[in-house]
Structure formats: structure tokens, C-alpha cells
Amino acid sequence: MDVKIDDSWKNILYDEFKKPYFNKLVDFVKNEYESNTCYPEGKNIFSAFDFCKFNDIKVVIIGQDPYHGIGQANGLSFSVSDNIAHPPSLINIFKEIEQDLGVAYPKSGNLERWAKQGVLLLNATLTVRAHEAGSHQGKGWETFTDAVIKKISEEKNDIVFLLWGGFAKKKSKLIDANKHHILQSGHPSPLSANRGYWFGNKHFSRANFQLQQVGVEAVDWS
Known about the structure:
two-stranded antiparallel sheet, 4-stranded parallel sheet, alpha/beta
């Protein structure tokens, strides 16, 4: 079975693609896309990996599920396509960047611009049925994306992991904290942010500080 994913990742994850669970996952996803409306578009399922090559990773941001509304999900966690209204979590991400770095709130919610700089925008589950949040959870995606996080932890050094909310924080057990930098806070969703668990975390300036400490170019979060 051939997975359409950037070659830098294909080499790293070759063994994972051969495992029985992954073949079952592919069959499930193919069937779902044939019989239901699902997001993101098939060509964008692995966009997080296509825009951020393995050798370029600086920062990893872990989301949970793709957006399940029409035209929203584009394969990058928290990101939406151009000309799509910004979901509440993304609005709060941009507001925190405004406060943290003093940059203007952007027009586009498409985070390809971050991914191309080495920010892996990884959802734990890479697909979803339209208007049914969590509908593709527990089918194998989490096993795959956990393996991705482990590989990054093992193969790389000095990556900044941004873990927002309880779900993402659980992924810390997959990361070697002696080799990498883990920043944790509440989730940017209104429920968490309005309780004071998100705003003021300064994760964007702190991530850049950690990168610069090891001689890596800072991310332009604008």
C-alpha cells in the first residue's frame, strides 16, 4: 500500500505503514470517504507532513480532531483554508499572539505559513465525518500519530512541543523531556480561555526563545 506523504516522512514512518492496524485504518478511511462526506479533502489528509518536512521540524503543536464544518479543515491542526471564518480556538490563538508578540491579528486563518517554517501542526486524528466531531477517533489514527510523536522525540533534539489542554498534555509521556522543550497550558477554546487557562501563556515568545537558545531561527508567528 502506497501512502501519499512527503518522502522525508515516508522513510521515517516506513515500518508504521506496514503494520496491520494501519492497513485497517486505510480501509476504514477509504470506505468513509466513499460513503460519507468527510474532512479534510483526501488530498489534504497528510498536509501537516507535506508542508513541514521531517528535517525542518522546530515546533510541534498537537490538536485533537479536524474541524468538521464545511470547508474548514485543511489538514493542519487549528488551521482553516483562506477566506474561511476563524473558529473560536483559532481566534484565541491569534489574540494571544497579538498580546504576546504585538503583531496584528491576521486576515487568513490558513497556517501553512507556519508549517513551511517548521511548525508541525499535528491532529491526533487526521480525518472526521462532516458535522460529527470525534467520529473517526479510535480507528487507528491515534496509534499512528503517537508513533509520529515518538519518532520525533527519538530522532530529533531541541524540538519545542506546545501542548494545549488535557488531551494534548497526555502526549507528554511520549516525549523525552531531557532532549526537548515542553510548554503546556489550557486549551485555546473559549471554555478554557475564558477561565484564565490560555491567555497569557506566552507560548509563542517562549517557543522562539527556546529555539534561539540552540541557534535555530525563530518562527514568524504573524
